[in-house]
Structures are given as C-alpha cells and as structure tokens.
Design goal:
globular, Beta-Lactamase, single chain
Length: 161
C-alpha cells in the first residue's frame, strides 16, 4: 500500500470538502428587533392617518416573529395580516399587485389556494437582494391603506432593500 505524504493528503481532503462548503448560501436573517421595528412602524404609520391595524411579520421560513394589534381592530384582521404576510413571502410579491394579476382569466386559480390571501397589505422583505421574510397589514380600511402602511414600515428600516 502506498502512503501519501501528509501535505498531499491535507490538500486532497481540502479539495473534496470545498464543493460541499460551496453549496451553502450565506443569507441575512430577520431579527426579532427588526421585526418589532417593522411592526411598530406600520402601527405608527397607520395611526398618523387615524387608522388602527394589525401587523404580522414572518421570517423566511414563514414563522411568525412579531405580531402587533391596535386595541380597536376586529379579531379577523389578525389572521388576515398573517395570511397576507404568508402570501407575500410565498409568492415573493406584493399582495396588492398579486390581487390585481389574479383577476386575469389565466391567473384566477390563485384565489383558490387556501392559504393565500389576495388582498393588499402584504409585502416581501428583502435584505441584500435576499428574501428574509414578509410583512402583512390588515384592518386599515382597505387594501390601499394597508399596503401604504406596510411600505412605510419597510422604508423606516434601512437594512431592508
């Protein structure tokens, strides 16, 4: 049996490990602090307009990270906010735009998927071009208002694209 010199063996092992390491992606993560800033920012943006909302923030895996609700918002809005965030995360698109696109005859089946909610107020969250989660706003008196409050919250967090 031929023995390899130790230096050659080390190089050989490093070369075989390189492809495995190259397959792992480096991605930014949504922190609890950032999720809470987003939720508070959305609540405050709507409050300045005299609107009370619920806001849900999910991480890239669809896990609920933050949920805030104004005192006077109806209970159905909590689930609506979460589902808007989930829809934005899942489709990587604004739920406001998605709802408009779903009105086309060839896209109407989107409305039949049980977990998706095609109402404005859900936006994907990107950091360094990578998806890190989503925000969903509900209860602000319509899709345009919910969408605007979600956008205002994102604009107030400089780490997000």
């Amino acid at each position: 049996m031929t023995r390899l010199p130790a230096a050659l063996l080390t190089i050989s092992l490093a070369a075989t490990a390189l492809p495995a390491a190259a397959q792992l992606r480096q991605q930014p993560d949504l922190t609890l602090a950032a999720a809470n800033r987003l939720a508070s920012g959305a609540i405050e943006a709507c409050r300045r307009q005299g609107r009370d909302i619920v806001v849900a923030v999910l991480d890239r895996g669809g896990n609920l990270v933050a949920l805030q609700r104004a005192d006077t918002v109806g209970p159905h809005n909590t689930e609506a906010a979460r589902r808007k965030a989930y829809t934005a995360l899942s489709t990587r698109s604004s739920t406001f735009e998605l709802a408009r696109k779903a009105a086309a005859p060839d896209a109407r089946n989107l409305a039949t998927l049980p977990e998706l909610l095609l109402l404005g107020g859900g936006l994907p969250l990107l950091a360094q071009g990578q998806p890190v989660g989503a925000i969903g706003v509900a209860g602000g008196g319509g899709a345009v208002n919910d969408d605007a409050c979600a956008r205002a919250a994102i604009a107030a967090v400089p780490e997000l694209d």
